[in-house]
Structures are given as C-alpha cells and as structure tokens.
TrEMBL record:
This is Uncharacterized protein. It comes from Parendozoicomonas callyspongiae. It comes from the Bacteria.
Amino acid sequence: MATTSLLAGLLINEMTSQGLSVIMDFQLATCPYCGNRHPKLVHRLFGNRVICTKCHAVGPDRKSGDLARYDWNRQSRELAFEKSIKNQQLLAHLSRLSRLSR
Ligand SMILES: [Zn+2]
C-alpha cells in the first residue's frame, strides 16, 4: 500500500512542478475529523506538525516531518477504526430495537 501511494505520488509529482511537497502531502492520511484528503505538513521553528486546511485539526508536534506524518497517519487510522466500531455498535443496537418493536 505504501508502495502504491508512493508511485501515485511520483506520478502526481511528474504532472506538477511542486516537487517533493506533493509527494509528502500525498502520503498523508485523510483528516479523521472532516475527511479532507489534503492535510498539510507544516515545518516550524520548534517542530513539525500536520494540519488540516479545512477544519484546522492539528496533529502532534514532532521533531521531524517524518515523525509528524507518521503520528498523524496513526491517529487518523485509530480514529477511523474507533468510529467504525461505534457505527457497528449503533447498527446492532438499532437492529435490536427494530426487532423488539415488531
Ligand atoms: Zn479536517
């Protein structure tokens, strides 16, 4: 999967003239809060973090851009997983309720 997105990132890189930043942005996971597919990695004086340009969610501050990206992606996966569990529990609950009301 990482290889696929890297290849796609390289393809996009060839189509644009924005260089490495396009590849790095492409490898960032979708924002877990609003679904924005293009969060940005921001380099700051005392750290790096990923921010969502739509809902302004902020990833953890890390020493390197790679770490900031890694933690953003991990957080995104964990929140998506948690959301899917909650949805499954809600569906099971609704299904029980509808069986009871018959
Ligand atoms: Zn967002």
